[in-house]
């Protein structure tokens, strides 16, 4: 994830769960009825978040879940978290540096049959078919899913609403490892970001700068 981030964004990663990771304050309430494996996953990704915050000079604080499940970052900070099998990560930046951040990681494998129609428009499916013809080594459907998750995470702190898969139209620039996501219902809002396929995973980062940047 580090290579996807611009200056000013701190990144912390874990390749698996950390037995010493602990939950602070209200964090425990979100997973108190969850299996032990889920609690450890939840604690590990928040350990990553506190590590990233520490690099910004922010002391350890709880990062509870909000009403829509989004993490509640300390005042003056923007950030994002992700987890998938074998990987947990968090990013954080000062709120005066970037407007919002969104990251996602997914296993690099095809989506279940029939899933693409649930997350992609007809135009996006044509776009992915063209990309697949040029670079069949990338599971573009999995990448599209990760991009939309990343965009939604970056959008929520700004718009305060939960987006559906039809609410963003994504186009890839394979040569640059980049993408652009347009939100038709919030025009001219568009998010840009970068992606990589590495270690059997797709990793995606959406960074929303201030308009003057």
From TrEMBL:
Keyword Magnesium recorded: yes
A single MF term (Gene Ontology) = holo-[acyl-carrier-protein] synthase activity
Q: Where is the 4'-phosphopantetheinyl transferase N-terminal domain?
A: 27-93
Obligatory cofactor(s): Mg(2+)
- Keywords for this protein: Magnesium, Metal-binding, Transferase
Looking up Pfam families in the UniProt record yields: 4PPT_N (PF17837), ACPS (PF01648)
Q: Provide one Gene Ontology biological process annotation.
A: enterobactin biosynthetic process
Q: Which GO terms describe its cellular component?
A: enterobactin synthetase complex; plasma membrane
Sites where the protein binds Mg(2+): 104-106
Which residues of the sequence carry a binding annotation for CoA?
A: 38, 46, 82-83, 104, 149, 153, 163
Occurrences of domain 4'-phosphopantetheinyl transferase (ranges): 100-188
Q: What protein name does the entry list?
A: 4'-phosphopantetheinyl transferase superfamily protein
